[in-house]
Amino acid sequence: MSNGNDNLYPDCLVINRTVEIGGLTKSELIQKLQQYSVLMNESAERLFADDKFSTSDTKYIVQTVELTVRDLGFPDGATMNEIFNRATDLGLALCPLELAPHLRLAYLDQPEGYLGHPLTQHQAPSGSITIASAMLTEDDDFPKGFYLRRIHGLLWLRGYRADHLQHLWNPDDHFIFCQSKEPIT
């Protein structure tokens, strides 16, 4: 299958990160986010408040990869289902939902995403990084997951809503997937 882009994952430029997660309750995570002045929108707060969002008592290491929708072979964009299916075919995995707050705390030097870019509506904001994770519910009115963003110098952990079957993600939208998970010994 040729789509005009010879630099597809795994033969493309990606950002790899190693993140330690687990070992904190949801309330401890929220306190830590507040300690680092990380802001959350209402959707992120709803995700945290939901009983289906749980944290691990055990600490473990997650190896992540950040890449674009284009890197997965979608030069014209793709739906979330298409993105997640392609990533799975390429040996990547969805991230545990609790990765997002831990990654936000580990990635405090995220570049500014707002300056010089037009405001968007019903699209991933410029400079944002969406954490690829399983949805807690199929309810269209409930947030689907988290994304990271720096806006006017402020760090955010934001929740988002998007129809997983119809919303078209842009080719340059960034996602984070898991490459591996290892317990800390």
Question: What does this entry look like structurally?
Answer:
The longest helix is centred in the first third of the chain and has 10 residues, at 26-35. Helix 1 (26-35) packs parallel to helix 4. With 185 residues, this protein is α/β, with parallel strands linked by helices. It has one domain (15-183). The chain has 4 helices and 7 strands, in the order E-H-E-H-E-H-H-E-E-E-E.
- Termini separation comes to 42 Å
Strand order, sheet with most strands = 1-3-7-4-5-6-2
Low-confidence stretches: 1-5
**How much helical structure, as a percent, in the residues?**
10-25%
Number of helices: 4
Structural class: alpha/beta
Please summarize the sheet with the most strands: 7 strands, mixed
Shape: globular
Q: What is the domain total for the residues?
A: 1
Helices and strands, in N-to-C order?
A: EHEHEHHEEEE
Q: What is the percentage of strand-forming residues?
A: 15-25%
- The counted number of beta strands is 7
- Mean residue pLDDT: 91
Radius of gyration (CA) equals 16 Å
